[in-house]
Design a protein that fits this description.
The chain has 9 helices and no strands. It is an all-alpha fold. The protein is rod-shaped and about 85 Å long.
Length: 199
């Protein structure tokens, strides 16, 4: 591996940084986008149960709003329950924007890294080809072995850049779909809670 990095030249180092960032962001998002952390099963029913027994005090409301995105939305709906439907939905839209921002954290960076990785690899290849052909013209007598070695070294960065970009793009699309799914669940749970408190 170290031989490949050395052979690839200076452009391998930013590509290595990109690979580490994609791995780190992927692990971080996989953990924080778990459905049980964003929208815990049975949370709405627990909140309704507390309301029915008149046991939803300020401390519990704060705790519920901090436990998950769904908890935050439910407590926002409860806080503004005395507003008309339009006003309540307006407040929930503001909170939903915050929730979306939290869920999409680092997703832009992931997409950017996946996009620039093959470009960095291509740049490394172009520079490597220039160096290889420049070496040929200055040496006087063309050597096919030297040329083949130079070209193979130059192509290493492109291969490495693509090997970073492909999983990066796959993860980016996966997380986009995951977030859309989670937002639909949050919307459904919140709507049902609104129907309950408006009765």
């Amino acid at each position: 591996m170290s031989e490949l990095i050395t052979a690839g030249g200076v452009f391998m180092y930013p590509l290595l940084i990109c690979s580490v960032l994609i791995f780190a962001i992927g692990i971080e998002r996989l953990w924080f986008l778990q459905e049980r952390l964003v929208s815990p099963t049975g949370l709405r029913a627990q909140v309704i149960n507390l309301l029915n027994r008149s046991k939803l005090d300020i401390k519990q409301r704060k705790s519920i709003s901090e436990i998950s995105s769904l908890g935050l939305l439910l407590m926002t709906a409860y806080k503004y329950k005395d507003l008309n439907r339009e006003g309540l939905e307006s407040k929930l839209n503001e909170t939903s924007s915050e929730v979306r921002f939290t869920l999409e954290r680092n997703l832009t960076m992931l997409g950017t890294i996946a996009t620039i990785s093959p470009l960095l690899g291509l740049l490394g290849t172009v520079v490597g080809m220039i160096v290889a052909f420049t070496g040929l013209t200055t040496s006087g007598s063309p050597d096919s072995d030297v040329l083949a070695l130079g070209i193979s070294q130059a192509l290493i960065t492109t291969a490495f850049g693509l090997s970073i970009a492909v999983p990066g793009l796959v993860l980016h699309k996966y997380f986009e779909q995951k977030i859309s799914h989670l937002l639909l669940i949050l919307q459904s749970e919140t709507s049902e809670f609104i129907d309950f408190i408006n009765n």
